[in-house]
Structure formats: C-alpha cells, structure tokens
Write a structure and sequence with these properties.
Elements: H1 12-29, E1 32-36, H2 42-59, E2 63-67, H3 74-83, E3 87-89, H4 92-96, E4 100-104, E5 121-126, E6 136-141, H5 148-159, H6 165-178, H7 188-198, H8 203-210, H9 216-228, E7 230-232, E8 235-242, H10 247-256, E9 264-271, E10 274-281, H11 288-295, E11 302-305, E12 308-314, H12 321-338, E13 348-349, H13 354-361
Parallel strand pairs: 1-2, 1-4, 2-3, 4-5, 5-6, 8-9
Antiparallel strand pairs: 7-8, 7-13, 9-10, 10-12, 11-12
Helix pairs in contact: 1-5, 2-5, 2-6, 3-8, 5-6, 5-7, 6-8, 11-12
C-alpha cells in the first residue's frame, strides 16, 4: 500500500487552511457553486469533483459544478463521461443565482472564467501565482503544488475519509496531466500525494481516459496544424485559423512540442470572436505564463505556470480577415522578440514536402 501523506509536510498547510474554513462556515456556504475556468482541463475537473465530494461528505455542503465554454479535448470528454463527473455548462446569469461561489483552478479577474470582476468569491483554490491578491474570503494559492487537485487530495487524505474510486481516478489523472507524469513535481509531498491516491484508482478507467478513441475532427485539425507549422531556430508557430473548440489549440501545441530539436511551440486558433493562444516549452524552469503575458496587450488575457500557458484575445465575431491575421502576426513577432530569437532569416514551412513547398512559394 502506498504511504499516506505526512501531516508535517509543507504543502498540507494549504489543505489545513481549507478544512478549517469549511468547518467554520459550512452552514452558510450551502448551496455552493463550484466554478472552474472556461474550457476546463483535467486538473480543474478533478479539483472541482474532489472539492464537491469533500464539501458534501464531511461538511454537508450541497454544491453544483459549473463551467463556461465547452469541454472539447478528447481526453477531457472521456474523463467526464467515464468517471461520470457531474459538471454543468452554465451562463453568467446562472452565476448570479448563487449567493456563494468557490473558484477552482482559476481566480477572480483572471479573464478565463465568467465570474463577475466586481464580485467577491467565498473560496479560491488555485496553483497559479497572481499579481494581485484574489478577491475572496479564503484564497488558497500554492504555486508549487504541481496541480490544483493536489490541494484537494491532501485535504481528503488529512480527513482520512473514504475516497471513491471515481474521485481518486479523476485526481490521479489531473495530477499526471498537469505535471507531465510528475516531471514538473517540485516537492516530495506532491509525488507522495499521487502515490497515496493511485492505489484507490480504477486503473482500467485511467488507461481508457489516457488513450481515447479520436474523432475525424481531431485528425482534420491535426493535419491543419501540421500544414500551418513554421519554424525558426527552436520555435514552432502554427496558426490554425477557425477551430471548433479552443481545446484543440492546446492539443496541437502539445503534439508539436514532441518534435525533435524544438524548445518552444506557439499555437493560435479562432473561435467565437476570440483568438485562443497556447504556449508550450520543454525548457526546465521556464516561465511560460510570464512569457505569454508579456506579448499580449492585456496581461489579464493570459496566464500559466512552468512550461504551460494559455490565453485569449477578443477580436470580434465580425472582424475582417486582416484584423485576425494582423493580430496573429503581431503576437508571432512579439514572441520572437520576447524569446530573444535573432530575427534574421525567414520562418520555414516545417513539414511541407519539397513539391508542396515549391508550389506554395510561387
């Protein structure tokens, strides 16, 4: 059996704060809206699922998990379906109907959620550093925890309650997806938390989530991303144009990062009037979030941690093609400058055959 997490380890400090707050305010918090960032990833989904279970099982707090946007990435949809995670797509008007809100894997004024900018949250649980203090009664922010769901897993382990197989499986996948299979785990307690959760998982379900059947749409987008990819030195840039889901932008960025001799990948995709951005790197100790914030017009439009960053720029549903293209090229050029890549020479088509390359250059 995997060792249980020790109470004296540093990361558990945050879990204890959360447990004390829930115990003190459990009567007033129910019903509670648990809100993730838009287009939630596995860490956000797992964190929300674990928090919902903790709140109800230990403190009797009824809650509903909500998100904006869509769940588009194949693995994320498989995670929700296989583990039967009770998430609901909601509107800004529905948020107003909840007196109490907890934000998971995001923060007020981050620009990646529907939470009103002028409203105070009850609880914020997140791993992303913020330039300003979150507007919340309780803010549990641990930038070194590797994944937000680690904080919820530690809270569950501290309470020594039964952790259902579905919840444990969600947490395990949330941790490994956000830490690159623990490669980015900076503290021993993060690895120990994962091991303490892993033996409670449904390993068959975990394997199915990690290796889902993919739709024809995925391969069409992948083909588009490969054809659009250009490279200069250690950077790949791919502007995908219209995408059916913003998740596809990060999906293609992750895939392109596996290309040999590449350090950075930047992808964009157009969806419902927004240009969605995804930045990836395999450089150790890289601050991808800071890099992306430095190249957008409004720093609240982007964020990230370690080697992963994402964001979006509002362009407008009826914006002409030249505006979209100009924005893509400006971001492209700012990134080259921010990464201090010498801009002499041209970006080259990376995967075009010689015949195709010659035809496109005519």
């Amino acid at each position: 059996m995997a060792p249980e997490i020790k109470k004296e380890q540093g990361g558990v400090f945050y879990a204890r704060r959360l447990l004390r707050f829930l115990a003190r305010h459990k009567e007033r918090l129910s019903p509670l809206l648990i809100l993730t960032h838009d287009y939630p990833d596995p860490d956000a989904l797992a964190g929300a699922f674990a928090f919902q279970y903790l709140a109800l099982k230990v403190y009797g707090i009824e809650s509903r998990i909500g998100y904006g946007g869509a769940i588009g990435r194949t693995e994320n949809r498989a995670m929700v379906k296989i583990l039967k995670i009770p998430v609901h797509r909601i509107s800004p008007a529905q948020i107003k109907g909840f007196k109490h809100v907890a934000l998971i894997d995001t923060q007020p004024r981050f620009g990646n959620n529907m939470f009103p900018a002028n409203r105070r949250a009850d609880i914020v649980i997140d791993q992303h550093p913020s330039e300003t203090k979150p507007n919340a009664d309780l803010a549990v922010i641990d930038p070194d925890c590797g994944a937000t769901c680690v904080l919820l897993a530690q809270a569950l382990l501290l309470k020594a309650i039964e952790i259902p197989e579905r919840v444990a499986t969600a947490i395990a996948y949330g941790i490994i997806s956000d830490t690159f299979d623990l490669y980015r785990a900076q503290r021993p307690d993060v690895v120990q938390t994962y091991l303490s959760i892993l033996h409670r998982c449904d390993m068959k379900a975990l394997a199915r989530i990690q290796n889902p059947l993919r739709s024809r749409r995925f391969f069409i987008t992948l083909h588009k991303g490969i054809r659009a990819a250009v490279a200069y030195r250690r950077l790949i840039v791919s502007h995908l144009g219209d995408v059916s889901s913003p998740d596809q932008v990060s999906e293609i960025a992750d895939f392109l990062l596996t290309y040999e001799r590449i350090y950075w990948v930047f992808c964009t995709g157009r969806h419902k009037g927004n240009l969605h951005l995804s930045l990836r790197t395999n450089r150790p100790n890289a601050a991808a979030g800071e890099v992306l914030r430095d190249i957008v017009s409004n720093r609240n439009q982007a964020g990230g941690h370690g080697s992963i960053a994402g964001g979006r720029c509002k362009i407008g549903l009826n914006a002409p093609e030249e505006v979209w293209g100009q924005t893509e090229q400006e971001l492209h050029q700012r990134l080259v400058k921010r990464l201090r890549i010498r801009s002499t020479g041209e970006f080259r088509k990376l995967f075009a055959s010689p015949a195709v390359a010659a035809h496109e250059s005519e």
